[in-house]
Amino acid sequence: MSITATELKKNLGKYLLLSATEDIFITKNGKVVAKLVNPHQNRIDTAKSLFGILPKDADIEETRAERLSK
Question: Which end of the chain is more exposed for a tag (fewer CB within 10 A), N or C?
């Protein structure tokens, strides 16, 4: 979720509760300036759950070149 700094100031309690279940990105002048996260969320388990998603023949250089050519 992305909110403005002004919105965060107006509703801090609401966003503190929401940060228990999702990351809150705070923007100022259209740019992300901070991230509100749950300090107890185990990010290592989340990262480990992503292993094996890419096909074995995925090539980072080919992907990078394809992305940059667009």
Answer: C
Strands, DSSP E only, in the chain?
A: 2-4, 24-28, 31-36
Q: Is 36 exposed, middle or buried (0-12, 13-18, 19+ CB in 10 A)?
A: middle
What is the total residue count of the chain? 70
**Is 25 within 8 Å of 32 (Cβ atoms)?**
yes
**pTM of structure:** 0.58
Which tens digits make up the pLDDT trace of 11-59?
Answer: 999 999 999 889 999 999 999 999 998 887 777 777 777 787 777 787 8
Q: Which of 46, 69, 48, 50 is nearest to 58 (CA)?
A: 50
The pLDDT tens digits of the residues spanning 58-69 come to 788 888 888 898
